[in-house]
Specification:
The protein has six helices and no strands. It is mostly helical.
Length: 155
């Protein structure tokens, strides 16, 4: 229940920060954090459905590339759920790598499937901005995981 509550709270907080307050890039990508946290305790189908839902919510207020976030979040949800089979445990080093790679992978997939006329340059987006945005999301994810989901695998 703690994972469900934290996931719902992160989704709501993401919408408040990005849509209601209009902070944009100044706020962390809490959709990715919510999806990665939840996908570790879900099966692949459920995690893909959650990723698709979050991608649709993200694309609903996107002006340039409808569908790219749906694809990226669905793939990310599936990968997060499969990671539970490959990596047992939730050490701090694993969580740091998991959140960092997950957040960066989402940005990379969105960049790759966005039309070249509207996407930013490769070096600017994937090598500079995405690393900083992934670090921001990963630090939020690790902090939230350690604060709210202490101990073993909470459901």
């Amino acid at each position: 229940m703690r994972v469900v509550g934290l996931t719902a709270g992160l989704i709501l907080m993401h919408l408040v920060l990005h849509v209601a307050l209009g902070l944009g890039r100044e706020a962390p990508d809490l959709f990715v954090v919510a999806l990665l946290l939840a996908s570790r305790s879900m099966n692949v189908r459920s995690a893909a459905a959650l990723g698709m839902l979050l991608g649709l919510l993200e694309d609903a207020y996107s002006m340039t590339s409808f569908g790219s976030n749906v694809l990226a979040m669905t793939v990310l949800g599936m990968a997060g759920a499969k990671s539970r089979d490959l990596f047992v445990g939730d050490s701090k080093s694993f969580l740091a790598t998991f959140f960092l790679l997950g957040a960066w992978l989402r940005i990379a997939i969105v960049w790759a499937v966005t039309e070249s006329a509207v996407r930013p340059d490769l070096d600017q987006r994937l090598l500079v901005e995405s690393v900083l945005m992934a670090l921001y999301a990963a630090s939020c994810g690790i902090l939230l995981r350690l604060l709210f989901l202490r101990g073993g695998r909470a459901s």
